[in-house]
């Protein structure tokens, strides 16, 4: 292993999110960075040995859920409104993991994303929790990028 290469894991709380290339503000949670695929069983009648070959098939990507403390920034609501009015307003969403010094160390880019669901905060008169806004984002691909 080269000298100075990091061996301990990065902390999951230190991340930021960009939507359409612009900083999207502070988020308390991001989940759903999952990519998986199906397979197809295939066999020709003359194949030897007598076993099934596994071929790659369609790729699938989980919906991304973002949660943040409620703010007066209504960018997400405006994006949702655009989608709900039938505008094809797809954007790239980038989730960027940072180290303890605040430097970007890796990023996951969800391409052709759009808001499918947006949820305002829950209110409780006897509580003292932060009001949380939740957004579900659908996308067509997930790529891991490493900074230069």
Overview of this structure, please?
There is one protein chain. By secondary structure, the chain is mainly β. It has one domain (15-34, 62-145): Pnp Oxidase, Chain A (Roll). Helices cover 7% and strands 46% of the residues. The chain is built from one helix and ten strands; from the N terminus they run ββββββαββββ. The chain has one helix spanning 75-84, and strands at residues 15-19, 22-23, 29-31, 35-42, 53-61, 64-69, 91-98, 104-119, 132-138, 142-145. Strands 1, 2, 3, 6, 7, 8, 9 and 10 form an eight-stranded antiparallel β-sheet that branches. The model has no long low-confidence stretch (mean pLDDT 89).
Which helices and strands occur, and which strands form pairs?
Elements: E1 15-19, E2 22-23, E3 29-31, E4 35-42, E5 53-61, E6 64-69, H1 75-84, E7 91-98, E8 104-119, E9 132-138, E10 142-145
Antiparallel strand pairs: 1-2, 1-7, 3-6, 4-5, 6-9, 7-8, 8-9, 8-10
Features:
148 residues; two-stranded antiparallel ribbon; 7% helix; Pnp Oxidase, Chain A
Distance between the termini: 19 Å
Task: Give the CATH H-level superfamily.
Answer: Hcp1-like
Named at the architecture level, the CATH assignment is Roll
CATH class: Mainly Beta
**Radius of gyration, taken over Cα atoms and rounded to an integer in Å:** 20 Å
Number of strands: 10
The unreliable regions are none
Put simply, the count of helices is: 1
What order do the SSEs take from the amino end to the carboxyl end, as H and E?
Answer: EEEEEEHEEEE
CATH-derived topology: Pnp Oxidase, Chain A
User: Percent range for helical residues?
Assistant: under 10%
Mean pLDDT: 89
The number of domains: 1
Judged by helices, strands and strand pairing, the structural class is: mainly beta
Q: Work out the strand percent.
A: over 45%
Shape annotation: extended
Largest β sheet strand count, sense and barrel closure:
8 strands, antiparallel
């Amino acid at each position: 292993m080269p000298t100075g290469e990091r061996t301990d894991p990065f902390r999951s709380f230190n991340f930021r999110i960009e939507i359409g290339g612009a900083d999207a503000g502070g988020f308390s949670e991001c989940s759903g960075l999952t990519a998986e695929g199906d397979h197809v069983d295939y066999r020709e009648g003359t194949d030897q040995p007598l076993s099934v070959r596994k071929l790659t098939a369609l790729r699938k990507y989980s919906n991304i859920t973002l949660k943040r403390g409620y703010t007066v920034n209504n960018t997400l609501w405006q994006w949702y409104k655009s989608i709900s009015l039938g505008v094809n307003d797809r954007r790239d969403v980038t989730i960027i993991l940072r180290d303890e010094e605040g430097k970007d160390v890796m990023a996951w880019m969800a391409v052709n994303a759009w808001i499918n669901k947006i949820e305002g905060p829950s209110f409780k008169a006897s509580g003292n929790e932060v009001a949380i806004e939740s957004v579900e984002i659908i996308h067509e691909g997930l790529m891991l990028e490493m900074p230069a």
